[in-house]
Amino acid sequence: MAELKSHNFCGTKRSAPDDSEDIKNDSKKSTAMISSLLEDPAAAVANTRHEFGEHGGVNMSIEASATFTVMEPETMRRMFAGELGPDRDFFIYSRHFNPTVLNLSRQMAALEGTAAAYCTASGMSAIASVLLQLLASGDHVVASRTLYGGTHALLAHFLPRTSNITTSFVDIGNLKEVEKEIVEGKTKVLYFESVSNPTLAVADIPELCRIGREKGLTVVVDNTFAPMVLSPARLGADVVVHSISKFISGGADIIAGAVCGPAKLVNSMMDLRQGSLMLLGPTMNAKVAFELSERIPHLSLRMKEHCRRASVFAKRMRKAGLKVIYPGLPDHPHHHLMKSLANPEYGFGGMLCIDMETEERANKLMNLLQNTTQFGFIAVSLGYYETLMSCSGSSTSSEMSGQEKELAGISPGLVRMSIGYMGTLEQKWSQFEKALAKVQDMGLSISNN
């Protein structure tokens, strides 16, 4: 568990204490402290403690050890019995807890406004671990029909086959449909993305969380598309999951994930006998955690620029006659909802879509944008400092059937763009305009009318 405690872990291994300090009470005080923070995620991250290096370095040291020594043999028994743990600087093995990974987890908990967090080796491992912890054989999930392809496959195919866990996929924007699909005594989880991949539909997080509370469900929200922009836990969500590989990393060089939620849940996921994280072992490497912890302090600056450029480009692309999907455009069906939910100064996100209607047109446009004008790269993933683009139907949503993609609103020619901030805005727009002119010369342009 990564609770936001005010004391510092020291660099020297301590002997087991003789006192009977009540750790749980201390944790409650810590959680109360968190709730008093400003709700601005950047302020919350800045307020969490700074971990200094072993020799006074301004950056923390990397604890690369797989295993940890104890000074008295009795201490190990007490650690395995759960009497002593990382909140008091006692570590056993890095698959359980690692000080460097724990520091990143504290930052993620602060970012999302939760009492605890645990960082994992990938976004999918975070999602799978949460669901396997919350669900048992015979349980049921209500989920958005528009999800990242890997998540959809996990819910639609893997969990029914391996665990007898079933899912009803719904239009998450239709609250009556959501309620209708909840089966009393069987449905345990309501799962959706804050901003859907790839269609950029915005979830009414407060209302969906209200339904979850009334029905006794655990609400799990994937906030990968909107870190800093939206704060699902502050809007009522129980659990927030991330693929840290995307915007939070920002470098397209690391695979990582995170589970942010109540201390009770994260503790249960780390239980020696029943914990999904403990027993499945999606362990983050300490060196990866160190690199990521150095990027979170400037995440707010990066997100603001991603969002600013996406907003400018979306408006200009629309004016140029393209069919653009972006929550920041006034005619987006969830424009006002997004505006009401977003944290101040972050705009409407760094993702936009252009619907070219057919895969052939989409591929022609992307080919010109990458290979002729250097506007961006044809690649999956998002959050990179360069613009990344892909035709979602044949790439990141390819796990879905044709009918499922149609129900989810994924056009065969939908080009998903993660807008980067490399170069100047006018330089990148000029590159886009040149490619668009060539598309129009070929007679392949799509009107937004």
From TrEMBL:
Cofactor: pyridoxal 5'-phosphate
Protein's UniProt keywords contain Methyltransferase: no
Chain intervals for the UniProt region annotation (Disordered): 1-28
Protein's UniProt keywords contain Lyase: no
Keywords, sorted A to Z: Pyridoxal phosphate
SUPFAM superfamilies for the chain: PLP-dependent transferases
Protein name listed in UniProt: Methionine gamma-lyase
